[in-house]
Amino acid sequence: MEITSAAAASNNPTAVKTLGKEDFLRLFTTQLRYQNPINPMDSTEFTSQLAQFSSLEQLFNIGSQLKDLLLYQNSLQNTLTANLIGKEIKYEGDSVYLKDTATINYTLTSPASKVKITITDSGGKTVKEIELNNQAEGAQSYQWDGRDSSGNKMPEGEYKIKVEAFDSSGNPVETSTLSSGIVTGMTFENNLTYLIINDSTKIQLSQVREIKNATT
């Protein structure tokens, strides 16, 4: 419930000042003090104003309790998130981290006759193109040996991936890609918790799709 100040509104028609419960109680007691003893306040109106004050106080208490609950939830979430450090996760993304080899994860919404995977480096240069045939609907993966199209071993680091798929009639098949990596840290920004993957990539918790113990 909001009570506006008439004086503030007259000085600035566009301004609306919200009074707190202390202001409401002060106005209420002042009204009682200066009421006409010959014609006292109507009992119905008196009861209505008391009900308004009670509702206002409850709203303030609920707001305070929700704030405390949010602080507790954030604290609990941060504690649980810390347990993810050292875990291997899959998350929504279009990159893969190469360390000797790398697993490229993707999903097909329907069977595909042809699948093309394009890998590019940090500068946008195409490192390798991979063509696969006859893949079923659902989750798929490809193990990249870390070599480019000429057979050269690529350095450790993050690479972008793009997956394109087509059915037997040549129509595109919708795809989505998943990145994977080791959780190496966490950070807090604007009341949000982020995971740090492989000391380089920052993601939100909502992007995580799978968590498992890291393989040695």
Q: What's the count of strands?
A: 12
**Radius of gyration computed on alpha carbons:** 31 Å
- Give, in order, the helices and strands: HHHEEEEEEEEEEEE
Structural class: alpha+beta
**What is the count of helical runs?**
3
Counting structural domains, the number is: 2
Shape: elongated
**SS strand fraction:** 35-45%
In whole angstroms, the N-to-C terminal distance is 59 Å
Mean pLDDT across the residues is 78
Proper CATH architecture of the largest domain = Sandwich
Q: Which fold name corresponds to the CATH topology of the largest domain? A: Immunoglobulin-like
Query: What does the largest sheet look like?
Result: 7 strands, antiparallel
Return the CATH class of the largest domain. Answer: Mainly Beta
Low-confidence stretches: 1-10
Helix fraction bin:
25-40%
Task: Please give a handful of descriptors for the protein shown.
alpha+beta; seven-stranded antiparallel sheet; 216 residues; 2 domains; Immunoglobulin-like
Task: Describe, in plain words, how this protein is organized in 3D.
With 216 residues, this protein is α+β, with helices and mostly antiparallel strands. It folds into 2 domains: 6-81, no CATH class; 87-213, Immunoglobulin-like (Sandwich), CATH 2.60.40.4070. Helices cover 27% and strands 40% of the residues. It contains 3 helices and 12 strands. It has helices spanning 6-11, 21-33, 43-82, and strands at 87-92, 95-98, 102-108, 112-120, 126-135, 138-144, 157-166, 172-173, 175-189, 192-197, 201-204, 208-213. Strands 1, 3, 6, 9, 10, 11 and 12 form a 7-stranded antiparallel beta sheet that branches. Strands 2, 4, 5, 7 and 8 form a 5-stranded antiparallel beta sheet that branches. Strand 9 and strand 10 form a beta hairpin. Helix 2 runs antiparallel to helix 3 (43-82).
